[in-house]
Every structure is written in structure tokens, then in C-alpha cells.
Write a structure and sequence with these properties.
Elements: E1 14-17, E2 22-27, H1 28-59, H2 75-87, E3 93-106, E4 124-136, H3 164-179
Parallel strand pairs: 1-3, 2-3
Antiparallel strand pairs: 3-4
Length: about 180
């Protein structure tokens, strides 16, 4: 977790959640309550993220220039530099790495019966997610470089892959049109 020594402000962190295999058995009512809770929590999280983004934009932290040594770098220093670069936290990110998630949706006995016809009269539905990974980089601009992301596998040689910057530029007018924004910037 890098920080500024003068005021000890954190400038980036990486949080990775790696749970054991999960198994959840939920009824319709429990699933609806869980989604309502997530929706209720989403607004404060969005406000906090927007506030943090404004603060980071105002701060405009300059990265210190690397000290260039007059001595040639040895092989050992190169290896250490590569190892540091591989594990360095360059920007804030959140990661979920779940090996297996089993979700069982089942009928609620009694008065709270399921509203879904396929779950009525004791029915159940199982959803299994294997090797799920979700990554969130909340302060990353779409046009910025992604090569420092762990596990990012963009390859220039593939004809099917498009450069992320070009892809973003192609999709931005469509997004702005659907949101009612002007395409002129």
C-alpha cells in the first residue's frame, strides 16, 4: 500500500477477497431482501466513491522521478526491479477470486410460497459458478494503460482484439447518445 511520507496519505491499495467455496440456499423472499439491501448500500458507496474521486483529482499527486544511477545495473538489480514492478500497487483496486459458488434457490414452504412457477410446490434451482473472478478499478480512466493490471492479457498480435483505447473511443458516442449527452466535447 503506497503512501506519501509527508502526510501519510494512502495513494493506492489493493484488496483481494478469496473466499472458500461458498454454498447458499435462499428462498425468493431472502433473495429479494438481499437485493434490496444491495440497492440501499449502492447509493452511499457511489457517493463515497464520487467524493474520493474529486479529492484525488484535486490533489494531483505527482509520482517521484526515479533516481538514475551512473553505475550500470547488475542482473540482480534487474531481477529485483522486475519483482517489485510485478507486485507494486499502482492504483486502487478491489478483487474477488471465488473458486466455487453454489446458489440454491428454493420454494418457501407455507404462506410465503415462491412467485416463480418453476419453483412452486417444492421446486429448486441450482446455479454454480466455478472459478469466478471480478476486478474493480474505481479510479481508472477508460483511456489509461492496463498493462500493470494483474492477469490482464491484451495481446497486440491478435486480429480479433481491438486496442482498449480505440474500442472505448468507438463506443463512447453510442453511450452518450443513449444517455442523452451531447457528442460534442
Amino acid at each position: 500500500m503506497p503512501y506519501i511520507f509527508t502526510d501519510c496519505a494512502v495513494i493506492g491499495s489493493r484488496l483481494a477477497i478469496c473466499p472458500e467455496p461458498l454454498a447458499w440456499a435462499l428462498t425468493d423472499g431472502q433473495l429479494r431482501a438481499m437485493l434490496a439491501c444491495a440497492v440501499a448500500l449502492a447509493k452511499p458507496v457511489q457517493r463515497a466513491t464520487a467524493a474520493a474521486t474529486r479529492i484525488k483529482a484535486l490533489r494531483k499527486i505527482e509520482e517521484p522521478r526515479e533516481h538514475i544511477s551512473s553505475r550500470p545495473a547488475t542482473g540482480e538489480r534487474d531481477i529485483l526491479a522486475r519483482m517489485f514492478a510485478k507486485h507494486d500497487v499502482r492504483e486502487t483496486s478491489y478483487h474477488l477470486l471465488a473458486p466455487r459458488i453454489d446458489l440454491h434457490l428454493c420454494d418457501d414452504p407455507g404462506l410465503g410460497r415462491s412467485e416463480k412457477p418453476s419453483l412452486a410446490n417444492g421446486g429448486a434451482l441450482q446455479v454454480t459458478l466455478v472459478s469466478m473472478q471480478a476486478d474493480l478499478f474505481p479510479y481508472h480512466k477508460a483511456s489509461d494503460d492496463r498493462r500493470h493490471w494483474r492477469g490482464y492479457r491484451y495481446q497486440l498480435g491478435l486480429k480479433t482484439a481491438t486496442r482498449p483505447v480505440r474500442w472505448s473511443a468507438q463506443r463512447r458516442p453510442l453511450y452518450q447518445a443513449t444517455r442523452g449527452y451531447s457528442t460534442l466535447s
